[in-house]
Amino acid sequence: MIRNLDIALIRAFVTVADRASMTAAANALHLTQGAVSQQIKRLEEALGSSLFTRDRRGLRLTRAGERLFGRGKRLLALNDEIWAEMAETPVAGQVRLGVPYDLVGTLLAPVLKTYAETYAQVEISLVCASSPELTAALAAGTIDLAVIEERVGPSVGECLAIDRLVWVGAKGGVARAKRPLPVSIVADTCAFRPAVLAALGEHGLEWRTVFENGNIDATTATVRSDLAVTAWLASTVPADLDILPSESGLPPLPNFAINLHLPKHGVGSAAQEFARHIRDGLARRPVAA
């Protein structure tokens, strides 16, 4: 009979299950993929049950894993709550969060709301910019933490989610068929821009810029008006716009990671709690398949 469970093993299991990936979980936990794999193996041996199976889509929970998942999340939440209460460290002060334009009103909106409600005494300052600009701001110390969009792969940040970069156009629009292809990108520093232009170049598609000055609302308006197409993460596409299928003649685009970056010099309690809210919020929200 098992009398206790190692919190570290449960945290590894829940993180892998949330992200359906050993690699993403390793990034989130700041461990090697091998270390996470060993933790899952130890937990399976302790429980006498397999917790994951692997298929073409990646890792999937077994029935035993599904039973453990909900209880494991509750156990971790209670563990974190106990530590927070016993530490008796008030969360106050100011926190400066850097967020890409496309995420602030979509994936991160619920996180911002719950954090502001939980820590009303914290002054929140939002800095919206492109991911490369946020990386520079974090290095310069002008923000305390940042959510940054990057090509999937090695990163100094913590991987919170992986999403598809997709072509987006007006419903029933014709801009997708025009040549040169009219493209609207929020800014010339946009993290997606190099991937988009590389895909167009590799497939020999001529293109022209319709809009590129840093305003997400104006970019959305050009696409909605069928003046251009754009490229966004699938989970951020508004319901009134189309994710363009492969039959549209546009080249496939790579996946991107949504990574959490913290400064090398460490962060205060307000920023630490903000990071925890962001992790929890994105883990609970499904990313478009």
Question: Gist?
Answer:
By secondary structure, the protein is of the alpha/beta class. 42% of the residues lie in helices and 22% in strands. The mean pLDDT is 88.
Polypeptide structure, described:
It contains 10 helices and 11 strands. α1 crosses α3 and α6 crosses α10. β1 and β2 (58-61) form a beta hairpin. By secondary structure, the protein is α/β, with parallel strands linked by helices. The radius of gyration is 21 Å and the shape is globular. The protein has helices at residues 7-19, 22-29, 33-47, 63-87, 101-104, 109-118, 131-140, 193-202, 216-224, 269-284; strands spanning 52-55, 58-61, 93-99, 122-128, 145-151, 158-170, 181-184, 207-211, 230-233, 241-243, 255-261. It is 42% helix and 22% strand. The model has no long low-confidence stretch (mean pLDDT 88). Strands 3, 4, 5, 6, 9, 10 and 11 form a 7-stranded mixed beta sheet that branches. The chain starts with 6 loop residues before the first helix and ends in a 5-residue tail after the last helix.
Summary keywords:
289 residues, two-stranded antiparallel sheet, alpha/beta, 11 strands, 7-stranded mixed β-sheet
Describe the secondary-structure layout.
Blueprint: H1 7-19, H2 22-29, H3 33-47, E1 52-55, E2 58-61, H4 63-87, E3 93-99, H5 101-104, H6 109-118, E4 122-128, H7 131-140, E5 145-151, E6 158-170, E7 181-184, H8 193-202, E8 207-211, H9 216-224, E9 230-233, E10 241-243, E11 255-261, H10 269-284
Helix pairs in contact: 1-2, 1-3, 1-4, 2-3, 6-10
